[in-house]
Amino acid sequence: MTTIASELSLDSRGPCALYIVSDSRITWKKHEHRWDSGQKTFASSGSPDIFGYCGSAFFPSQILNQVTRQIEAGILFDGNANARERHGRWLTTVKRSLENSQDALIEDFILLHGARDGAGMGCKFLLWKSSWSTKSRKWIDDEVKLSPEYSQFLTISGTGRDGLEKSIGSSSQEEEANTSRHAFQKLFHSIDAGGDKFTGGAPQMVGLYRVKPARHFGIIWKNKRYYCGVELVAGSNYESIEWRNEKFERADGKSKSRIKGAQEHS
Question: Does pTM surpass 0.85?
Answer without folding.
Answer: yes
